[in-house]
Amino acid sequence: MSKVKLEIFDNFAKQYFNELKCPSSNLINAMKYSFFSGGKRIRAQLVYIVSEMFGVSIQESNKIAFAIEAIHTYSLIHDDLPAMDNDSLRRGVPTCHIKYNDATAILAGDALQSIAFKVLQDLDIKDVKVLKKVNSILADCSGTDGMVAGQQLDIDGENNNLDIDNLKIVHINKTAKMFCASMLIPYTVSNNYNKNIAKTLEHIAILTGLCFQIKDDILDVTKSTKELGKTSAKDISSNKSTYVSLLGIEKANELLNTMTYEILESIMSIESSSVNCSKLKNIIKLVINRNH
């Protein structure tokens, strides 16, 4: 994300939190602690990029990006809890339940989830059907047809040797579906909706999410805890199947390159409709080439 867009996003988020009605300062502080603890903001970047591609205003983009990042942050808070991944470090700082406590972390995640849907209600959309579709996309991608289901599949897969196809199902839901929300919601609120382009964007989002996960698995065994900002080799210690454990680093990199090529081919089909996709290509490169 450009420094300008990042500053615009952070200012919007800070203002939203400052205006949020809540009688518990401890709850708000826990929410803000995790939300502003750093991170690559890749999902927010996707929102701004797709918005720019299809003419969505910065005001609406801010709301969508905030909703997506609120859901993402809630998922990280809950993912780090002792009952889940039991991690003490996230983005280089103590996780929410370590900084506060388990109960406050759970409630902070719950609250972030609820305000994500609240902020979407503030979108300047006259067509009620479009607003309902936007909320349905976020609910599906973050819930039982997406991220939460993927998390459960991930837990179910512990101490089981998943094959590559079942591992793909886990991460399409756990990771890639929120990439779908990041791209499909801004496109849905644009005035340029076309079912074929929407389908292509969804395909790109799924592949980008899978590439993100493959790269995560590679970094998990090649980088230190300090470099990653989170506990390294965590999946190995939890006896989870990963792309590296199933394929090895070399084959995992080959799969990453194959998916990247497929993403770029799909982007070309959108470019044929006279849409500037240069920034979308750049963020794909960021996902593939990142070192943490």
Automatic annotation (TrEMBL):
<keyword id="KW-0808">Transferase</keyword>
<dbReference type="InterPro" id="IPR053378">
    <property type="entry name" value="Prenyl_diphosphate_synthase"/>
</dbReference>
<dbReference type="InterPro" id="IPR033749">
    <property type="entry name" value="Polyprenyl_synt_CS"/>
</dbReference>
<keyword id="KW-0479">Metal-binding</keyword>
<keyword id="KW-0414">Isoprene biosynthesis</keyword>
<dbReference type="Pfam" id="PF00348">
    <property type="entry name" value="polyprenyl_synt"/>
</dbReference>
<dbReference type="InterPro" id="IPR000092">
    <property type="entry name" value="Polyprenyl_synt"/>
</dbReference>
<dbReference type="GO" id="GO:0046872">
    <property type="term" value="F:metal ion binding"/>
</dbReference>
<protein>
    <submittedName>
        <fullName>Octaprenyl-diphosphate synthase</fullName>
    </submittedName>
</protein>
<dbReference type="GO" id="GO:0004659">
    <property type="term" value="F:prenyltransferase activity"/>
</dbReference>
<keyword id="KW-0460">Magnesium</keyword>
<comment type="similarity">
    <text>Belongs to the FPP/GGPP synthase family.</text>
</comment>
<dbReference type="GO" id="GO:0016114">
    <property type="term" value="P:terpenoid biosynthetic process"/>
</dbReference>
<dbReference type="GO" id="GO:0008654">
    <property type="term" value="P:phospholipid biosynthetic process"/>
</dbReference>
<dbReference type="InterPro" id="IPR008949">
    <property type="entry name" value="Isoprenoid_synthase_dom_sf"/>
</dbReference>
<dbReference type="GO" id="GO:0005737">
    <property type="term" value="C:cytoplasm"/>
</dbReference>
